[in-house]
Amino acid sequence: MDASMERSMGETCQGAAEEAAEVVIVGAGMVGAVLACLLGEAGVTVTLVDARETLLDPESVGRGQPGIRVSALTPVSQTLLEGLGAWGWMAARRISPYRFMQVWDAEGSGEVSFSAEQAGVARLGHIVENDVTQAALERRLGALVSVRLVLGARVTGLSELADGARCVQLADGRRLTAPLVIAADGARSPLRELAGIDVNAHETGHRAVVTTVRAERPHGDVARQVFLPTGPLAFLPLRLDGERHHCSIVWSTSPEEAERLLGLSTEALGEELAMAIGHRLGEVTVIDRAVSFPLVQRHAQRYVLPGLALVGDAAHSIHPLAGQGVNLGLMDAAVLAEELLAARRRGVALYDERWLSRYARRRRGDNAGMLALMDGFRLLFGTRHPALTLARNLGLGAVDRLTPLKRLIMQQAIGHRGRLPSSCR
């Protein structure tokens, strides 16, 4: 979206006390942007609201040193982004495919390996910087005349109108009205709180330490994860300028250990990382700052109300153990768009909770199952009990030998779960 388009949209919004659309989406991150694209391509009038003041600069994204926050996008998410016309631009910038996965227990001999060939796909997924995906979606949004983007907007109120529609109040006095308002505004969603929807929150007791490294040996397009006594450590492969030596690091550990790691020099942190992964990639050099954030699993008690729906982290936030968080959110967006477009074709009001519940039924079970699975893994691999340590090592070895079970696990990991929306097939 060019600067002149942004200015004209901003002036239009400022000049109106009340602005109407068919859908208002609060939160223009990856999930909110995908949902706006899916609806906008079908001609639905969408007002997309975000607290950010500016868009990303597409000329700088995907250049030079990689962004510190990345996502492991599944082939199903890739299909969705291809259909939106975003993937080609992402691929021209920087995406890093991985064809293998290795998971092992640092306290034993248990190990399991997965390959794309075993899953019957060309690759298991891609590690992509969040900014690359975000910038590609922002470019697509700029081409959709039915989507209006409102930046620098803070939501202060939410009300229900007499006709069943909703009204979103902004801090600058503007009011946005629509039959349906969608919260895509993150794990601490202000809109979810304004709607009075409670969440079941579970403190994992972990913090994630993330950074970027260069390894002595090439990663070979392998995503590696080792379960340490202090928590799981992932080395996610990156390709930079044709090289295969860089990795994005996600180390989930105790708050005390996270604080210790952040206090290390880059040289000392590199040595710790190399040792933690068993020197499988040789020496490790940290090339970016290390940052940390708390890991809290949340699940909203309701996904929908009349005229309101939650998607992405506003509905559920998950431990990054399997890299499924953003993929679950993108699937929320695809399923909700499919249901809304079906309702629109049938003349059903978009605020109709009975129809919105179709989205909730399709997504809540899958999300709840993944949340429970990740919590189970975290507890199992976090224990130091000798009997459980032996059991999990034997279990990893058994999975590695049972090809049908491995294939089932891989189908889940690449996103082939349940009935996929048409945009993901």
Please tell me about this protein's structure:
The structure is a single chain. Helix content is 37%, strand content 29%. With 425 residues, the chain is an alpha/beta fold. The chain has 2 domains: 3-55 and 136-201 and 297-380, FAD/NAD(P)-binding domain, CATH 3.50.50; 70-133 and 206-295, D-Amino Acid Oxidase, subunit A, domain 2 (D-Amino Acid Oxidase, Chain A, domain 2). The strands form 4 sheets. Strands 6, 7, 14, 15, 16, 17, 18, 19 and 22 form a 9-stranded mixed beta sheet that branches. Strands 9-3-2-13-21-20 form a 6-stranded mixed beta sheet. α2 (30-41) runs parallel beside α10. It is globular and about 65 Å long. Residues 1-16 and 383-393 have low confidence and may be disordered.
The CATH architecture designation of the largest domain is 3-Layer(bba) Sandwich
**Portion in strands:** 25-35%
Q: Tally the helices: what do you get?
A: 13
Rg, rounded, reads 22 Å
Mean pLDDT level: 88
- CATH class annotation of the largest domain: Alpha Beta
According to DSSP, the number of beta strands is 22
| Poorly predicted residue ranges | 1-16, 383-393
Number of domains: 2
CATH superfamily of the largest domain: FAD/NAD(P)-binding domain
List the helices and strands and how they pair.
Elements: H1 3-14, E1 18-20, E2 23-26, H2 30-41, E3 46-49, E4 70-73, H3 75-83, H4 87-93, E5 96-98, E6 100-105, E7 111-115, H5 116-119, E8 125-129, H6 130-141, E9 147-150, E10 155-160, E11 166-170, E12 175-178, E13 180-183, H7 190-194, E14 199-215, E15 222-228, E16 231-240, E17 243-253, H8 255-262, H9 266-276, E18 284-286, E19 291-300, E20 304-305, E21 308-310, E22 316-317, H10 325-345, H11 353-382, H12 386-401, H13 403-413
Helix pairs in contact: 2-6, 2-10, 4-6, 10-11
